[in-house]
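Q: What structure does this chain adopt?
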Amino acid sequence: MADSKTGSTGWNAWKAWETIKLETHQVYPELGLITLNRPDNLNALNETLITNFNQCMDFLNHALDCRVAILCGAGRLFCAGTDMKRSKEEAKQHDWTHFPDKVKQQWQVQHELSQMFVKLRSIPQPVIAAVHGAAVGGGMAFANASDMVVASREVRFINAFIKIGLSGADCASTYYLPRILGFHRSAELLYSGRDLSAEEAYQWGYVNILVDKPEETVPAAVAFAADYMLTKSPLGLRLTKEAVNNNMDSPSLEAALKIEDRNQVVCSQTDDRSEGVSAFLEKRRPKYGPR
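A:
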């Protein structure tokens, strides 16, 4: 039975891990759906989910037929953050947790965790987070690292790390939030860990598209991607994300322009350029190849 929270009707199975599911859209096969799939545990992050998510990102990094990815969570909410009840026995299944020194072990766990948010930004597909219920701690970090956010009105975004005796700076939150929200609003969330409602997040510009019901989040993301992203050159879209990633930290205007100039020269020589111009002049949807 389809999960009403993720709108998974209309998707074909593509690849699956124990806690991550990857599907392709039946109408738009260039569109991929990544589902955090621990619904009985509110999609909380344990060692298995961390491993599986990194494996999924490694897979998508080479899956160039997939042009846009949507990230969602199965069940009641998007992601509850770190699994505070995860078992030591479960953790021992992963080689990267095998350190006799607890400091080294925790460092490695933290490293594997943080790599999820590096890889989410590094994959060539723009990522739309479709959030329902709540995005807490690492769950909010997934939204931070995505290219766009669609949320339903009941959602709460919570940078919760500081509420459990830790620093509020975790999972790249101090990198992404100031770039999305600016210094003062980011500091407010990082220092307090307070709930940010979907309505307020939309007003702040953190949420791109606000929908009324949880089951509308994925369809809204699909509609935006189909209308505005899959109609663009596949290479052009990938290189645009690459330029955004590089130019967020560009040391100068000249350095940013060099990346943009290179991208335009490369794209102008592709078959997609000819098809894009023809489609524009003929007022039709362009027909690009899958790559």
